[in-house]
């Protein structure tokens, strides 16, 4: 049974890299060490993965094939592709280092998302508690004019308002998650940069990116088209030309397209992907910090409108009855 996949994949990758690089052990010895050190874990998943992998390796199977059929952890296609790549080049450590950093980036993204939603969740909880207090206080204040039907109606108003607030928060969370998570292009250019530095041809590097996104996705189709252009002999600028269907912001499109143009002119193809990835990351970080600063005032305004609408909906009818 494959459980808690991301955390365990990261833990297994970190442990294997630590044993092989820091402890200078072979792959089999590293797996034996992981099997022994993780044996007292709560779920013991990492120990089982290490034991399963070690036994299959000793039977003569490839590491990438073993990970593809591992019954305890689900390694994604990119992970397996990098392990398969290391088997061809004989440099497992570099592939593990890249995969380790990729897992760390994903963990950081998750932590950023959790950090971002703590304040809105706290404010929504306070808003709900305060709205219930308003209803109770109103019932005490206007007990003479409050009927059972009125109380049911008031509860309905709160439920509808609260559901509206939750819906707004949910769509806001989806937007925030999209902004906080690393750009797909950032990940793609990092992968291509790593592969090219390992002296892999650019078409093979692009194949890894296609495996990451899937052939039917927007980015998968885009990089499949890039691969075809390169095979036809087009230069980098023409092959990687980005149109508005991929990136709507014209300034960003222009910056990336110009970077490829300069790479062709200066023959610095090995550095262009790293520079573009760094530029995309810095831009995303700046945008993320800006939106994080906006969370608090937006939450205050939205919750303020929510509470004001409840107060008006609950108190106005009672005040009208008293005036008559």
- Helix-strand makeup class: mainly alpha
Radius of gyration: 27 Å
Number of strands: 0
Helix and strand pattern:
HHHHHHHHHHHHH
Largest sheet: none
Overall pLDDT level: 76
Treating each run of at least 4 consecutive H or I residues as one helix, how many helices?
13
Instruction: Give the amount of beta strand, in percent.
Output: under 5%
Please bin the fraction of helical residues: over 70%
Uncertain spans: none
**How many angstroms does the end-to-end distance come to?**
68 Å
Shape: flat
Protein model, in words:
The chain is mainly alpha-helical and 324 residues long. 81% of the residues lie in helices and 0% in strands. The protein has 13 helices and no strands. The longest helix has 55 residues, at 269-323.
Quickly describe the structure.
The protein is an all-alpha fold and 324 residues long. It is built from 13 helices and no strands.
Layout: helices, strands, pairs:
Elements: H1 5-22, H2 27-37, H3 45-58, H4 63-68, H5 77-89, H6 92-141, H7 148-180, H8 184-197, H9 202-213, H10 218-231, H11 236-239, H12 250-266, H13 269-323
Helix pairs in contact: 1-2, 1-3, 1-6, 2-3, 5-6, 5-9, 6-7, 6-13, 7-13, 8-9, 8-13, 9-10, 12-13
């Amino acid at each position: 049974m494959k459980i808690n996949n991301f955390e365990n994949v990261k833990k297994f990758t970190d442990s294997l890299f630590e044993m092989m690089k820091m402890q200078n052990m072979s792959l089999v010895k590293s797996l034996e060490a992981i099997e022994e050190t993780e044996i007292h874990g709560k779920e013991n998943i990492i120990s089982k993965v290490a034991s399963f992998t070690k036994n299959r390796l000793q039977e003569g199977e490839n590491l990438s094939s073993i990970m593809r059929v591992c019954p305890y952890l689900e390694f994604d296609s990119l992970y397996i592709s990098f392990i398969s790549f290391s088997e061809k080049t004989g440099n497992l450590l570099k592939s593990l280092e890249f995969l380790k950093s990729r897992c760390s980036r994903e963990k950081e993204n998750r932590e950023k998302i959790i950090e971002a939603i703590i304040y809105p969740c706290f404010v929504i909880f306070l808003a709900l508690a305060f709205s219930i207090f308003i209803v109770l206080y109103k019932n005490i204040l206007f007990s003479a004019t409050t009927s059972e039907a009125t109380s049911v109606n008031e509860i309905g108003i709160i439920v509808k308002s609260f559901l509206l607030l939750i819906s707004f928060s949910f769509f806001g969370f989806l937007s925030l998650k999209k902004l906080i998570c690393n750009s797909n292009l950032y990940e793609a250019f990092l992968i291509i940069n790593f592969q090219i530095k390992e002296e892999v041809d650019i078409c093979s590097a692009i194949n890894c990116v296609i495996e990451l996104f899937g052939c039917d996705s927007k980015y998968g189709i885009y990089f499949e088209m890039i691969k075809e252009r390169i095979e036809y002999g087009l230069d980098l600028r023409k092959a990687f030309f980005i149109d508005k269907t991929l990136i709507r912001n014209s300034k960003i499109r222009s910056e990336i397209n110009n970077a490829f143009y300069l790479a062709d002119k200066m023959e610095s193809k090995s550095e262009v992907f790293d520079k573009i990835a760094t530029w995309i990351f810095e831009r995303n970080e700046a945008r993320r910090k800006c939106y994080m600063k906006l969370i608090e005032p937006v939450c205050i305004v939205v919750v303020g409108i929510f509470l004001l609408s409840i107060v008006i909906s609950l108190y106005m009818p009672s005040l009208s009855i008293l005036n008559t």
